[in-house]
Specification:
Udp-n-acetylmuramoylalanyl-d-glutamate--2,6- Diaminopimelate Ligase, Chain: A, domain 1; globular; 11 strands; alpha/beta; single chain
C-alpha cells in the first residue's frame, strides 16, 4: 500500500481542518505516493529518529509535534530542523504530523487518553469548538471528568505523579478539599484555566504554566503542571492503536528514544 492510504485513514479520524490556525499538521516532507514499508511513531521528529526509522525499515515517521512550526528561510545542517529534514529527504523518509487536530478530538484525543489513565469517568470536552455541523464528532480543547472515588489533594497529586511517570509536579497551594472533578489538557493548557474554573473542576492538570498563570488560579482551583512532554507521552499510544487496529500488512513501531529536552534534578 502507499503511504497516502494510511494518511487518508488517519485524516478521517483526525481531519486536518480540526487543527488550530497556527498549526502545521500534515505532511512535513516526503512523497505520499511511495510504497509504505513501515511506520515509526514519535512525539517529536529529530535526526536520530531518522536513524531509528532506517534501522526498523520504516519510511514514514508520524510525530505529534510538527518539525516545521514556523517559516524557514534556509535549509542547512546548522540546526535540528535542517539536519532532520535533510536526512529525511536523502533517505526518502516521509514525516507527518498529527498535532492539534489530534489534541482537539474528544474520542481518541490526547487529553482523553490522560483522563482515562487517571481513571476519570463521564469525560466531556472542557471547551467545545463552535460552528461545526451536527454530524461532526465532538471537537474542542481539553476534557473534564470525575473520579469514581474522591481523594484528598495530596493523594491525588501522588496518583498523578505515578500515573504520568514524572518526578516533578509544579502546583498551586493546597486547600484541604476533596478532589472529585478533574480538568485535563495535554500540552500547553494555561489558556484553558478560566474554562477549568468555570467547569467547577477541583484540579486542572496541564503543562507550561508561567509564573503569573499560577496566580490566576486565585485559590479557585488546584493547578498541577506536569510538564509538556510528560502530558503528551501517551499520544504515541493513540496513534499506534489507531493504526494497528486497522492495518496488519506493515510494521508499526513506537519509538524507543526519549526526545524530552528537559531534565530534572
Amino acid at each position: 500500500m502507499q503511504i497516502k492510504e494510511l494518511l487518508n485513514y488517519l485524516e478521517q479520524i483526525a481531519p486536518l481542518k480540526y487543527q488550530e490556525h497556527y498549526d502545521n499538521s500534515g505532511i512535513i516532507c516526503g512523497d505520499e505516493n511511495t510504497a509504505l514499508t513501515g511506520v515509526l511513531i514519535c512525539l517529536d521528529s529529530m535526526d536520530y529518529h531518522i536513524d531509528e526509522a532506517l534501522s526498523k525499515n520504516c519510511n514514514l515517521i508520524i510525530a505529534h509535534h510538527p518539525l516545521i512550526f514556523r517559516g524557514i528561510k534556509k535549509l542547512t545542517p546548522g540546526d535540528y530542523v535542517g539536519r532532520t529534514l535533510m536526512k529525511a529527504i536523502r533517505n526518502n523518509i516521509t514525516i507527518y504530523s498529527m498535532h492539534t487536530n489530534l489534541d482537539n478530538l474528544l474520542y481518541n484525543g490526547v487529553s482523553e487518553r490522560i483522563a482515562r489513565k487517571l481513571g476519570l469517568q463521564e469525560i466531556a470536552l472542557l471547551s467545545s469548538k463552535v460552528n461545526l455541523p451536527e454530524d461532526e464528532q465532538p471537537v474542542g480543547a481539553g476534557v473534564v471528568g470525575n473520579l469514581n472515588n474522591p481523594m484528598d489533594e495530596k493523594s491525588f497529586l501522588i496518583h498523578l505523579r505515578e500515573t504520568m511517570k514524572t518526578s516533578c509536579i509544579r502546583y498551586t497551594n493546597l486547600s484541604d478539599k476533596q478532589v472529585r472533578k478533574v480538568a485535563v489538557c495535554g500540552g500547553s493548557g494555561a489558556f484553558l484555566l478560566k474554562e477549568a474554573i468555570k467547569s467547577e473542576a477541583d484540579v486542572f492538570v496541564s503543562a507550561d504554566f508561567k509564573y503569573h498563570d499560577f496566580f490566576d488560579a486565585d485559590g479557585k482551583i488546584l493547578v498541577a503542571d506536569i510538564g509538556h512532554y510528560e502530558s503528551e507521552q501517551f499520544t504515541v499510544e493513540i496513534i499506534y492503536d489507531l493504526i494497528t487496529k486497522r492495518f496488519s500488512n506493515f510494521a508499526a513501531h513506537l519509538t524507543e528514544l526519549n526526545s524530552n529536552p528537559i531534565n530534572y534534578l
